[in-house]
Amino acid sequence: MADHQQIFDQLCDHVRETAKLENINALLGWDERVMLPERGGAYRADQVTLLAGIIHDRNTDPQLGAWLEELTDSPLTEEPNSFTEATIRRIRSDYLKQVKLPKRLIEEFSHSRIIGQQTWVKARADNNFGTFEPILDKLISLSREMAEAIGYEGEQYDALLDFYEPEAKTAQVRQVLETLKSQLVPLVAEIKDSGRQPNLEILKRNFPIAAQEQFGKVAAAKIGFDFTSGRLDVTHHPFCSTSGPHDCRITTRYDEDFFPSAFFSILHEAGHGIYEQGLPEEWFGLPPGAAASLGVHESQSRLWENIVGRSYAFWSHFYPEVKKAFPAALGDVPMSDFHFAINEVTPSLIRVEADEATYNLHIIIRFELEQALLSGDLQVKDLPGAWNEKYTQQLGITPPNDADGCLQDVHWSAGLMGYFPTYSLGNIYSAQLMEQAHEDLGDLEGMFAAGEFAPLLGWLRENVHQAGQCYPGDKLVERVCGDPIDSAPLIRYLRAKLGPLYGIEH
């Protein structure tokens, strides 16, 4: 009779060792986007390619398959969604996917991703889509090849979406986003017709970068990001990266003449980092020590950035401090004017700076475009025109150039096809979770106004973070909130906040 516990321990040791290599890969990725000299990109691509091949060998090791064969349907899987059962189930799911991917494809994809990101940085700076087109075309071709190798029952896009939102299906996500769009469009129209507009000039004064960094760190620490296990740096496109159980790195980019750009980016990435820092440390490197999905990950960043960070209660606590940090810029600005300005709703070009009401329209555009790119219905050379057409139709604004159009995001340059819809799923999850937190905890606004963020953080730790990957993202949120994925709470939240500001029904 097999000793299932001993086999399980061997399985976990193997996967934890592989995770160390993946963490090294993450560190190389962080360095490439934050510290790497311009001419170091080609050799970094070679380093990452070598490491990706080694990781793939371990992920497809026949011994791993043999252990999983022994453990599947063993007594260790009898308790559904336990840490042990989830570990076996998730590792098996990943193994069955990885064994279908040729090592050659993994290595070529990893190499092309680094070249893609390096090329994208220069192409965006030069506003030159032509220099980016060949590598993007290659990355999409490789993504298509990966989807075909993995296989799918519904749509080709399903195979890639599963990397980021396990068990989600394109058709389901499409329906959720179409429903959300149908609710957002009239809300945005009502706001536009209200005739009210905040004074945005107050956000476009001079905000010294050193003071922005210091204030951003204070706010991030206050909401729960642990700087003894993390750090903040500067990059071209903000992100969060974890390289160890006590090594979580967040990044931002500063604009000395626009306060929201860096500050809300810091809150957003700190939200990601807080989730990473709240996962079960003793299970690091295994499914219970990893995020449920990118949609859930995004729910944490958007919750802290927007639902908390743009609330009147949040600034009731922080506004005296921000006025001290920027006396020349904000000394004469009432808090009500500042709060209205940071919650402005108007169609804009840049996704990461979009307001809450129009943000998901940016995501829907990308979701539609990358499906068309993957299927071949849209050729890469035609992407700039298709992008501009959708922005004109859906947001009523046309990008003046490709740098602020189809070159604005890093994701496609990194081969992250299937990633974008998780942002909107995250927005929906965040509103569902926040409604439940209000019900369970009571007067959260009063707590925020008093600078007390620990009760909400503790609630998220207990209900979301500590579950790791025991449940798929949508099932985890349903378990916490009692309802399946539903965009109604997000619309209720937006109308409750924006209604008084714009004088519309809420």
TrEMBL record:
The keyword Transcription regulation belongs to this UniProt entry's keyword annotation: no
Short name of one Pfam family: Peptidase_M32
Names of the cofactor(s): Zn(2+)
Chain residues that bind Zn(2+): H268, H272, E298
Catalytic reaction list: Release of a C-terminal amino acid with broad specificity, except for -Pro
EC number: 3.4.17.19
Keywords, alphabetical: Carboxypeptidase, Hydrolase, Metal-binding, Metalloprotease, Protease, Zinc
Ranges in a coiled coil: none
Any GO molecular function: metallocarboxypeptidase activity
PROSITE patterns from the UniProt entry: PEPTIDASE_M32 (PS52034)
InterPro entries for this protein: Peptidase_M32_Taq
Keyword Nucleus: no
Manner of cofactor binding, per the entry note: Binds 1 zinc ion per subunit.
Active-site residue numbers: E269 (proton donor/acceptor)
A single BP term in Gene Ontology: proteolysis
CDD domains reported in the protein's UniProt record: M32_Taq
Membership in a protein family: Belongs to the peptidase M32 family.
Function: Broad specificity carboxypetidase that releases amino acids sequentially from the C-terminus, including neutral, aromatic, polar and basic residues.
Name under which the protein is recorded: Metal-dependent carboxypeptidase
Organism of derivation: Blastopirellula marina
